[in-house]
Amino acid sequence: MSAEAIPTHGRLAEQAAAALARLGVELPTSDGGVISRSPINGEVLAQLPSNTAEDVDAVIAAASDAFRQWRSVPAPCRGDLVRRLGELLIEHKTDLAALITLEVGKIESEALGEVQEMIDVCDFAVGLSRQLYGRTMPSERPLHRLSETWHPLGVVGVITAFNFPMAVWAWNTAVALIAGDTVIWKPSEITPLTAIACSALLDRAVREAGAPTGIHTLIQGDREVGERIVDDPRIALVSATGSVRMGRAIGPRVAARFGRSLLELGGNNAAIVTASADLDLAVRGIVFAAAGTAGQRCTSLRRLIVHHSVADELTARIADVYRQLAIGSPLGTETLVGPLIHGPAFHAFEGALQQAQSDGGKIVAGGRRVLAEQAPDAYYVEPTIVTMPQQSTVVQEETFAPILYVLTYESFDDAIELNNAVPQGLSSSIFTTDQREAELFMSAAGSDCGIANVNIGTSGAEIGGAFGGEKETGGGRESGSDSWKAYMRRATNTVNYSSELPLAQGVNFG
């Protein structure tokens, strides 16, 4: 396990400023407010002003005004704006990825992959702009037409998390703009620079496409700023990505004012490895899903449910690969595992391992902080494997860190029960060469998650399929498929083109 050297303080702020300058962004300065701090070495990248509650009120009013214009623009013309945004993302892909690495700590290939997700979803949304289909149904009354049409919803408030600071914004924003909505974006306080970069490119696309000003606005700030979005009745839809705790606060508050919410919350994802599995394939899929992004994806693999006959061999093989993973600065070309986002994430990592051992778990690989002498203000940890004797309390909780709990099973029914025996329901997978097992896993009697994969890991979803999960994951769906319907309102239309007035269900009122 080699480690890429951690850069000294001062260099990263210069790199961030240079990347933003190439994007045409000059940062405002502030003594406090929102602080961007790199997880690579703990260096402060920038200090930015925070929006006030009054600012948010003005932004919502402007977005409401802009909506009245934008909703009447033909959807294919709205697609021209999103097409231009996609072109700008392609043009500035390298600098956008560099900012993700600096603010989040992702290795280069994962950061570039996140920008590619934005490009892909723009491409998807442009095609969607000509496919916002309604439907026509047979009417029971003669010479009547019964149909459904879809219309723009209103102002959409988008609240995003640190771990995908650009992609989740793009999932929501590209589709919302195509749908005819306007967008207000409240990013994580941890990743303000990536937000500024994305917003600047969309602002440029708005100008070049001749779209109305105010159809997208970035606001930065603390929890109070987000609460104004949640509680304001002018916000038709609140799309929020984050923890279950956050979702428990947002969902009831939006519902209390009869608004809509689209929640993407926690994941406690499992992979079942059966006796028939191709273990070479399984090891590759498991290692990326569990250790990639230092375990800080909502789809990261956290539970490995293995048939007892192959458990020892598989665990030993994964542990061997873990010992070879290069941990260090994500700026290094050989690095595969970067840092945790901050100190609280590290303390959660420590606490979970202590609890797992108290519950009878045994650490068989990893479990330690590394590079502390080089980077005392940053938090690098070894990806960790813990064999567990049972589905304990800690296994039912999501810890945003590279901890993989290994449980064994006897029967396939036991494996499905273990997969489903957690409150979260985002992603799941199975490694098997038995078609019957694969089909059962994907059936109504199988995984209860929003994502059920076969012979791949739990992470790395494509934008073409709707993304989201069940139970405490929130039930929302973003990105592909028909997720566009969450950003629009449906109207049922009946047209009478006869000279009579028959009533439905044969009612006679005459």
From TrEMBL:
InterPro entries tied to this protein: Ald_DH/histidinol_DH (IPR016161), Ald_DH_C (IPR016163), Ald_DH_CS_GLU (IPR029510), Ald_DH_N (IPR016162), Aldehyde_DH_dom (IPR015590), ALDH7A1-like (IPR044638)
Residues of the Aldehyde dehydrogenase domain: 36-490
CDD domains from the UniProt entry: ALDH_F7_AASADH
Keyword vocabulary terms for this entry: NAD, Oxidoreductase
Presence of keyword Oxidoreductase: yes
Gene Ontology MF, one: aldehyde dehydrogenase (NAD+) activity
EC number in record: 1.2.1.3
Enzyme class: oxidoreductase
Active-site residues from the entry: 264
Assigned protein family: Belongs to the aldehyde dehydrogenase family.
Quaternary structure annotation from Swiss-Prot or TrEMBL: Homotetramer.
Protein's name in the database: aldehyde dehydrogenase (NAD(+))
